[in-house]
Automatic annotation (TrEMBL):
Residues 30-100 form the SUI1 domain. The keyword Protein biosynthesis applies. This is SUI1 domain-containing protein. It comes from the Eukaryota. Probably involved in translation. One of its GO terms (biological process) is regulation of translation. Gene3D superfamilies: SUI1-like domain. PROSITE patterns: SUI1. GO terms for molecular function: mRNA binding; translation initiation factor activity. It comes from Salix udensis. Keywords: Protein biosynthesis, Translation regulation. PANTHER family: EUKARYOTIC TRANSLATION INITIATION FACTOR SUI1 (PTHR10388). Belongs to the SUI1 family. The keyword Transcription does not apply.
C-alpha cells in the first residue's frame, strides 16, 4: 500500500510566536483602549505603562486636565491599568508624548 500522510487541521493561533518569545517583540507598547458601557457611555483604559512611573500622579493629572473621573485597577494578568471615563484616547496619547513619558511609536490606540 502507498503511505499517505494525513495532516490533521488544528486551530491557527496568530499569537503563538509572541507567546514563545515572551512578549510583543523587542518593543513594549502602551495600549490605549476604549470599552463601550451602556448607551453613549464609554471607558478608556491605559495599560502597559512602565513600572517606574507613578500611576496615581499620572491619573491625578489626567483627571484634572480632561475633567473626567478615573481610577487605577490592579489586574492579575495586565498589572496596573488606568481607567478614565469617556473617550480620552487621543487626549491620553498627546499627554504622554507632550510630557516626554513615552514616544509616539510606543503607543498603540485600539477601538472603533
Amino acid at each position: 500500500m502507498v503511505g499517505l500522510e494525513i495532516e490533521i487541521p488544528c486551530a491557527f493561533d496568530p499569537f503563538a510566536d509572541a507567546k514563545q518569545s515572551g512578549g510583543a517583540g523587542t518593543k513594549e507598547y502602551v495600549h490605549i483602549r476604549i470599552q463601550q458601557r451602556n448607551g453613549k457611555k464609554s471607558l478608556t483604559t491605559v495599560q502597559g505603562l512602565p513600572k517606574e512611573l507613578s500611576y496615581e500622579r499620572i491619573l491625578k493629572t489626567l483627571k484634572k486636565d480632561f475633567c473626567c473621573n478615573g481610577n487605577v485597577v490592579q489586574d492579575k494578568e495586565l498589572g496596573k491599568v488606568i481607567q478614565l471615563q469617556g473617550d480620552q484616547r487621543k487626549n491620553v496619547q498627546n499627554f504622554l508624548v507632550n510630557q516626554n513619558l513615552l514616544k509616539k511609536d510606543q503607543i498603540k490606540i485600539h477601538g472603533f
